[in-house]
Amino acid sequence: MSISLKTVPSENSRPRNTREKIIWAARRVFAEKGYSQTRIQDLLKAAGVSPGAFYNYFSNKEELFLEIVRETGDQFRGSIKHIRRSRIRIGTQEELYSALKESFRYFFEFVHRNRAGVRILFREQQNANPRIRETLNEIVFEIQQDLKKDIQRGIDMGLIAISDPEIAAWGIISAVSGVGLNYLGHPKIEQDRLVKALSELFLLGLFKRIPR
Amino acid sequence: MSISLKTVPSENSRPRNTREKIIWAARRVFAEKGYSQTRIQDLLKAAGVSPGAFYNYFSNKEELFLEIVRETGDQFRGSIKHIRRSRIRIGTQEELYSALKESFRYFFEFVHRNRAGVRILFREQQNANPRIRETLNEIVFEIQQDLKKDIQRGIDMGLIAISDPEIAAWGIISAVSGVGLNYLGHPKIEQDRLVKALSELFLLGLFKRIPR
Q1: Residue A29 is assigned to a structural domain of this protein
Q2: What is the tally of structural domains in chain B?
Q3: SS3 of B44, please?
Q4: Between chains, do A178 and B201 touch, taking CB under 8 Å as contact?
Q5: Which value does ipTM take for this structure?
Q6: How far is CA B75 from CA A33, A54, B6, B36, in A?
Q7: Is residue A176 included in any domain, yes or no?
Q8: Are B41 and B80 in a shared domain?
Q9: What residues of A are in contact with residue B137 (Cβ under 8 Å)?
């Protein structure tokens, strides 16, 4: 499986310009220190840039953080959407199953690789800073809308039987992110186990299928 | 349906002694001001007690808050457990469906009636205070374990087909609490709609049942 995790900066993907250099360093600093504990000074030091260079691109810490959140969110959302849609071609339940499974797999791999960053995001989602909270809520809302559309597509194709795609999408996104948060605290749990259990739960439900 | 929401203090259920009076007043103050913004002074004023009376029962704000969280958690957990178990008697899928549905209904009614308090709890779960975080995590863990046991019971009875009751319980609890958090922001959504959609999702799954 070749899923690209573009949102994860690695030593190999060095930034090409000053703006990227600042973002690249800030991802690490925020992940280490959290949002409120990070000072502009820490960001300048980590990026190796002057205050002048910094303020050329970002007016303050909040703006930089929001930019990182938006970039990461857009990339994550794009990847999940691509994984789901590229798998649903012929239109069988098996395909749908594999599409959902792969998008769960991508999510848990993302959480695993971005452990510290994801922890910060969960914390900030309850945070007092309204702009950060709103930005995070918008991203989650968009991901829910994508899933809702895909569920509707499944209904139209005759594969899915559900009467309320909107709430179902809320439920699935909440479950996956809640299990992701739990996974942060239990890193030894195998990703495959989470992926399999959630795919089974959401696609087949708890009930044993009794043939009519 | 007669579900008692004992954890919700009402004007009619006046506290009988000083300790209860403090707890009763503190629930409101914490719900209004949040945990960190509440000062001992606010608690004394709201309860109408002297510092001496307060420190007779609680050594500080944290201890009082934890006591409220534990009491509420125990009552909530007990109610959910009771609702689920008292409904599963004869052992049909219909009964199981109604058991899950009623426990979801209880949850959303609880969120609705304790709007401000629940919001505080969600925020504190990501909070820096480790004792509060741990206490909340313990409560959620216990509720998950109860659900896991009930799922296992359903498996043993031949009603439920799921291979990983533990992760399924994580998923369901996460979904329900995530949807509950969402519901806080969208109070106009009808509870019945949430209850029906989640019961359908968890018991039947997304997939249309294809007769073999």
Answers
A1: no
A2: 2
A3: helix
A4: no
A5: 0.84
A6: 37, 53, 7, 24
A7: yes
A8: no
A9: 185
Amino acid letter at A2?
S
Task: Give the closest of A93, A167, A193 to B194, CB-based.
Answer: A167
Cα–Cα distance, A84 to A79 (Å, whole number)? 9
Reference A30, options A157, A118, A126; nearest CA is A118
- Interface A–B counts its CB contacts (< 8 A) at 166
- State whether B196 and B113 are in the same domain: yes
Residues B171, A179: C-beta atoms closer than 8 Å? yes
pLDDT of B207 reads: 83
Evaluate whether residue B212 is within a structural domain: no
Q: Is residue A141 part of a domain?
A: yes
Question: With contacts defined as CB-CB under 8 Å, which chain A residues touch B174?
Answer: 174-179, 181-182
Confidence of residue B10 (pLDDT cuts 50, 70, 90): very low
pLDDT of residue A194: 96
Say which of B174, B185, B193 has its CB closest to residue A178.
Answer: B174
Taking an 8 Å cut-off on Cβ atoms, the answer to whether A208 and B122 are in contact is no
User: Which of A2, A5, A7, A1 is closest to A121 using CA atoms?
Assistant: A7
Q: Do A172 and B198 touch (CB under 8 A)?
A: no
Residues in chain A closer than 8 A to B182 (CB atoms) = 170, 174
Q: What is the CATH number of the domain that holds A164?
A: 1.10.357.10
| pLDDT value, residue B8 | 46
- Tell me the residue range of the domain where B50 lies: 10-59
Q: Are A176 and A198 in contact (CB under 8 A)?
A: yes
Residue A165 pLDDT > 50 = yes
